[in-house]
Amino acid sequence: MDIDVKKVAMLARIRLTDSEADELGPQLGSILGYIEKLSEVNTDGVMPTAHPHDAAMPLRANIVTNSNRREALQAVAPNVLSGLYVVPKVIE
Amino acid sequence: MSWEVVIGLEVHTQINTATKAFCGCSTAFGSEPNSQTCPVCLGMPGQLPVLNGLAVDKSILTGLAINADINLESKFDRKNYFYPDLPKGYQITQFTVPLVENGYLDIPTKSGEEKRIGITRIHMEEDAGKSMHEGLDGVSHIDLNRSGVPLMEIVSEPDMRSADEAIAYLKQLHQLILFLDVSGANMEMGQFRCDANVSVHRPGTPFGTRAELKNLNSFRFIKQAIEYEVNRQIELIEDGGEVVQETRLYDSVLGESRSMRSKEEAHDYRYFPEPDLPPLRVYQQQVDTIRAGMPELPGQLRRRFETEYGLSPYDADVLTQTRALAGWYEALVAAHASDPKRCANWLANELLGRLKELGKDIEASPVSAHRLAGLLDRIADSTISGKIAKDVLDAMLECSDDADAIIEAKGLKQVSDSGAIDAIIESVMAANPDQLAGYRAGKDKLMGFFVGQVMKASRGQANPGMVNARLGVLLKG
Questions:
Q1: Residue B262 clears pLDDT 60, i.e. is over it
Q2: Which residue of A has its CA nearest to B26?
């Protein structure tokens, strides 16, 4: 199966060299080819599986349970200023 | 040959729960940046989302109010894209099976007829954080307090044929959402945001290629942006060009839009089922309970105000703009039951006008419904005229006294004593011999002059009905 490795890499923000892309292309293709076998199965009248477990979603009560832990949570951020995360400019 | 405009709208409205969609963080607006976040809404590895039950109930309520089907089983999906205000790298949304489908809203149109606008679906999703770029050099600042706030995305059918219809639909939807109390729907605070899909075509031919206008946050800008886009597309086609499918950003300062080409590549969202969330199941009994608790909706309320209180369609519309206002009106009518129309006039024309000048909503009115009723009672029993009552209302807004106390303290009681009124009339006649002679010579129009003079001489306190009646007798001599 043929896939556009460069495009997938771009969407996933992964930088690939040409040789890496050449190497990964057939590997990804064979994985998709394997999955493709599923399309040979007759699924007429079978409900799509939404989730592997036959469980309904548990729900949360609308009650605030989290307090302000900004300092601890921002300890791992590369750059913060006055409580804001600082990131490379993201608008043209 | 004319062009037909085709508009479909996507509205994102924040659900007004106390906590976020998938975690126990507060949704309070205006807090210290990043003070309402946790590992779940920051997208830390290994964290699992748990959906807020009240957000589900509010979405169901909205679905029922637009006459839609509620899917007893719906699913969540991941919409993948990279942006710094989306820490997980995907938004949890409902792609294949939304909670709500196949609804509609009836909107008023210029012709006076109602038009039905289809609503394809309402799906639940989460908001992104907030990016700030202004005044920053080479960097952006990110506040993730909004990350994970629950949203409903309400997607219409391409059923609108003009910017005016689009605005009518949005206003109707906005009012409905406020009535249901499912969102603060404050547009300036970003709680009610609109994207518009706009295309043009010749009637009878297939729809044209559409452009998407993003993030329109006031009714005025939405109208301007749509009108600009319609003209842009028509000119483009008439000049031999072709509309391309793209996202455009409207600049309300320049009054024009520009293409956001960089968004195009990112539109490959690669949706897939959210593995962290099993299907959402709701129960018919739950839906029925929510339906039973549905408040009276704006249209129903409008019709009831017209039939029960005999209001004009215009007054009924004004007084049902918000639930609070409608409730205030009914409290006023309860306290001054003899004349619901007088209640409507004084609330809609007098009190609301004064509150607007003070920059206040009806909820913050210094005059309660009970106090206003006390004033209307004095008009009803002719203690004061309507004109004097306006002055009393002004005074009531500045103190906490009731109408009776102000009328008493200022000596504003209407003069209905025919002897006193006759005395004033006599003095006015004596002071204006020329006009009196003119009237007696057949200049009937001078009646108005005398009424005005008598009212003035009585400082507005003479009973106008009696003044007219007595003048009719005395002027003739």
A1: no
A2: A64
Is B249 an interface residue toward A (CB < 8 Å)? Answer: no
* ipTM here: 0.89
* Residue among A58, A83, A87 whose CB faces B32 most closely: A83
Specify the pLDDT at position B265. 57
Q: What is the CATH number of the domain that holds A22?
A: 1.10.20
How confident is the prediction for chain B on average, in pLDDT? Answer: 92
Cross-chain residue pair B17–A62, CB shorter than 8 Å: yes
pTM for the predicted model, two decimal places: 0.83
Examine residue A63 and state whether it is found in any structural domain, yes or no.
no
Using 50, 70 and 90 to split pLDDT, how confident is the model at B263? low
> A78 to chain B nearest CA, in Å?
13
The number of distinct structural domains making up chain A is 1
Residue B194's pLDDT is what? 95
CB contact under 8 A, A85 and B144: yes
Q: Which of B12, B37, B147 is nearest to B92 (CA)?
A: B147
User: Is residue B264 scored above 70 in pLDDT?
Assistant: no
Domain that holds residue A27: 1-40
* A30 belongs to a structural domain: yes
Q: Which two tokens stand for residue B403?
A: 């109408």
Using an 8 Å CB-CB cutoff, list chain A residues near B55.
Answer: 62
Predicted local distance difference test score (pLDDT) of residue A92: 55
Q: Which residues of B touch A69 (CB under 8 A)?
A: 37-38
Cα distance between residue B357 and residue B219, in whole Å:
22
B418-474: CATH number: 1.10.10.410
